[in-house]
């Protein structure tokens, strides 16, 4: 990939309005449209552990579901996990993460995982990078509510991230 990467998160973010219940054909057509407009990465949805009420396939975006999609060549597939999914009592839990990502990136059609976390979750969430990276996934962090942090805190977090 070039240094400039365009990521679309419409399916993941838009899922808040329809419980991530998108028609399969709509997703396939959407992937074709994203390729046509030059999007590099499509974030299909989340990976979640528990189900409370109905949620569609893009809430869990498991590998079996992803294999059913018609993905145009050149589109990188991505999922997001919330740090709260992999932290138990504010401590990283690799067992939960291994349940969410049982396959290596080589087998899975997902190659990028974004971890959404608050600043107070960031340090523990960094441990997930090692596990995911060892399975071949690229990892990115989405630091939520970063605008509420002062620059010193953000610089400190960036220095910690660089170590990984």
Question: Can you give keywords for this protein?
Answer:
164 residues; alpha/beta; TIM Barrel; 5-stranded parallel β-sheet; two-stranded antiparallel ribbon; 7 helices
Global outline: globular
N-to-C span? 20 Å
Just give the CATH class: Alpha Beta
Largest sheet properties: 5 strands, parallel
CATH architecture classification name: Alpha-Beta Barrel
- Counting helices, strands and paired strands, the structural category is alpha/beta
Q: What do we call the CATH homologous superfamily?
A: Aldolase class I
What's the number of domains?
A: 1
The fraction of residues assigned to DSSP E strands is: 15-25%
In N-to-C order, the SSE pattern is EHHEHEHEEHEHEH
Nearest-angstrom radius of gyration?
16 Å
Q: Which regions have little confidence, pLDDT < 50, spanning 5+ residues?
A: none
Q: What is the overall number of helices?
A: 7
Oligomer: single chain
Enter the CATH topology name.
Answer: TIM Barrel
Element layout with pairings:
Layout: E1 7-8, H1 10-18, H2 24-36, E2 41-46, H3 63-66, E3 76-82, H4 83-86, E4 87-88, E5 91-92, H5 94-100, E6 110-117, H6 119-134, E7 138-143, H7 151-162
Parallel strand pairs: 1-2, 2-3, 3-6, 6-7
Antiparallel strand pairs: 4-5
Question: What would you say this structure looks like, in words?
Answer:
By secondary structure, the chain is α/β, with parallel strands linked by helices. The chain contains 7 helices and 7 strands; from the N terminus they run E-H-H-E-H-E-H-E-E-H-E-H-E-H. The longest helix has 16 residues.
Concise structural overview:
This protein has 164 residues and is α/β, with parallel strands linked by helices. It is built from seven helices and seven strands, in the order E-H-H-E-H-E-H-E-E-H-E-H-E-H. The protein has a single domain, classed as Aldolase class I (TIM Barrel), CATH 3.20.20.70.
């Amino acid at each position: 990939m070039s240094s400039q990467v365009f990521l679309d998160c419409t399916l993941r973010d838009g899922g808040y309005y329809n419980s991530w219940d998108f028609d399969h054909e709509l997703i396939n057509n959407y992937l074709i449209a994203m390729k046509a407009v030059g999007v590099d990465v499509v974030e299909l949805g989340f990976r979640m552990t528990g189900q409370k009420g109905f949620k569609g396939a893009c809430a869990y975006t498991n590998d079996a579901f992803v294999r059913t999609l018609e993905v145009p060549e050149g589109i990188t597939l991505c999922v997001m996990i919330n740090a709260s999914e992999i932290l138990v009592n504010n401590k990283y839990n690799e067992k939960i993460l291994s349940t969410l990502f049982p396959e290596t990136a080589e087998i899975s059609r997902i190659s990028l995982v974004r971890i959404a976390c608050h600043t107070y979750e960031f340090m523990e969430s960094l441990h997930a990078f090692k596990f995911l990276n060892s399975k071949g996934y690229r990892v990115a962090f989405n630091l939520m509510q970063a605008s509420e942090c002062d620059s010193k805190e953000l610089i400190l977090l960036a220095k910690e991230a660089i170590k990984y």
